[in-house]
Fold this sequence. Notes:
By secondary structure, this protein is mainly β. Helix content is 14%, strand content 48%. The termini are far apart.
Amino acid sequence: MSYLKLTPLNTEWNRKHKLANGEGTIFLINQSNGFTRFAHFLSKGEKRFFICQDEIFTKNFQTTQEEFYSVIEDLKDLKFSQYP
């Protein structure tokens, strides 16, 4: 499936959690009911999943037009960490 890549803004939280260091790929999974779900796939194979309110998302990330292709398991089975 195709997902849009994200560019993290240089915020304190993104730096603290290594989202702004350019390692791996960050991409949008979906937006619904006022919440955004996104993932960070690190080059070492680690996969992290986040959820946050849409307002917080737009203050910390920019959506690009670049696509990322991946297979993601059923979203119901994934554990999403609260961002920030």
